[in-house]
Structures
1.
Amino acid sequence: MGFFGKWLGGGLGFVMGGPMGGMLGFLIGSAIDETAGEVPVYTSGQHVTARGDFGVSLLVLIAAVMKADGKVVKSELDYVKQFFVRQFGPDSAKQALQILKDILKQDIPVMDVCYQIRDNMDYSSRLQLIHLLFNLSIADGYVQEPEKRLLEQISGYLGISGNDFSSIRNMFIPDTDAFYKILEIDSTATDEDVKKAYRKMAMLYHPDRVSHLGEEIKKSADEKFRKVNEAYEKIKKERNLA
């Protein structure tokens, strides 16, 4: 089963309508034809995000970020290819890249697409989208300014809180006191506040929160969870906390 067969087999719902459906109708229709009998289609609404909805949303936003600075560089394409090879194997990666190239040829109404995602996708899945997009944008060594601006816009359109966006951004672009910002606290926080913040962030970013998207995405979520633990361990060491 190819890339779309694997992810769309988890269900398609909200991406069949709105701006995403209009932009990708032909591609999605072709994928359904190829995987006939395997693709349950239903409306996600406010229910747990379907894997197919997440997969299509990720591809569209990947294309938007890749186009942010007006050019698509080889390192970004290589990252996307490696990501899909790791998650789905070489055949699926090849198919995903072809679909991505088709999306890159289109004008992407980023705000409308993000509003569609925001209104239909659960919050933990939206956080995972942002984390994966940062992974992409830093594939060439650093995040370009146009990419930074677009990522912040996408996060806002997706309804991600400022603190949660700052937390993820500091995992990739460390500011002063980055470890504290990952935990969404100030360096002046008490030891008890540090412990409370860690427990909160560990729950928010636990890989199990996106387990409904499949083992592939759950493995990617492990990275975000490790960053939270690393931040906490660093702060503990600085403060000699038990």
2.
Amino acid sequence: MHSEYHRIVPSADTAILMVHGIVGTPRHFDFLLEAIPDNISVVNILLPGHGGTVQDFANASIKQWKEKVEVHMADLCRTHSRVIVVSHSMGTLLTAEAAQKHPEVKDFLFINVPLRVWIAPRMIP
């Protein structure tokens, strides 16, 4: 079952926002959840269209993904003094963009950041 995981600790100063990559799910971060102390809030989101059918995915849009990340980041920034972002692949791009609106977010763990690397002929000696 693919579903979001939310653990909001009322007294927590720190929260972690987790955002999976394309065609991923929150289960991608299962290996990290057990290592997070109980006094830290965790929001591990499921992006629209993910974790369901091919039709669900086809009906989702990048705009919906961006909005979902932004809403959760903004909520956590309002309720916690420190927000840590943990994201994978496309999730790193979504969270980096959302963080531009939230300069208070300073801590990131980006896993498998999508990069485009190219070598121009002038770069070869």
3.
Amino acid sequence: MKIVKKEDFFAKKEFFISEMEKGRIFIYPTDTIYGIGCDALNGGAVMKIRELKKRENKPFSVIVPSIAWIRKNCFVDSLAEKWLEKLPGKYTFVLKLRNLNAVNSVVNGGRDSLGVRIPANWFASIISKLGKPFVTTSVNFSGEKNMEKLEDLDDFIKSKVDYAVYEGPLERRASSIVSLIDGKEKILR
């Protein structure tokens, strides 16, 4: 795993975007916690994250390139529109998919819904430039503490990641998750 500072990432931004397009696995900061992810259209890369997190079929969420992407690929009613006004921000919205091919089926286990977010963080601008969804899940095994600093990173996970974009300790909480399916609002976390 190569550790990259934000400044170095921006100095070689085009290189790192091409690495994302090749299916490389990244750890990156968000406005909440450190995430681990890859191109959400690359099924092989998504499977690597499933294997390293030991997460068989629980769906992953994605950072999306824009609100326009959400409107194009998900069903957005008036209730969802009101919530979308909170983006970018510390929210993940679960929406019914309009386009089942918007992500590889490995991302959401073939479900007809998807968790989408746009963090209020510089990394979201990279995903916007990438122009496609990027898997976002916490850097930990299910039920264990989220990675707050590099020293918290499990050796097994470390051995499977290509890049860690590290900004120092992030002692925050994960995003709020709100289901907005069929005109009903349900706070999941």
4.
Amino acid sequence: MRETHIAEFDTAFNFVRRPTSLPPDLRPIWKISMLILMLHICCRGGRSSLQRLHVLNWAVRNHESREDFNHLIEGRLEPTDVVVRYEPGLQRAIDLSLGQKLVSRVGGDKIQLTSTGRAFAKALLAEECVAVEKTFFQGIKQTVTEARIEQIVYMVST
């Protein structure tokens, strides 16, 4: 706490540093949890390309992006109608997950769950946390194949 006197007001002011709340999507544990759930629920064998993980990471961020993604998959939106954001926070979550041995790199651009990561995913599924995100991943798991994501991304880039 720091006290400052401002003569013009003829009073003292106290300045107190307070913690700043971070939104959940910027918290590392939330990102790591999303990464683990994406791999466990949406990816065959718990393995995915970085490209698919970035698309899923964008899709799960908030209600609007989940809705846009569902419309995109259903064909009600064209790939050029949405802006998929590739955010550095996902790469940090991957790096932290690699360090914690939750995931491993496979063949260059693929990420795969380890046995520790699968155990963490099962623990997340057993808890009542991130229910909206788990429901979203369960609802799209059949539609987010590597081929489908590649098709969406290719259509945007051409």
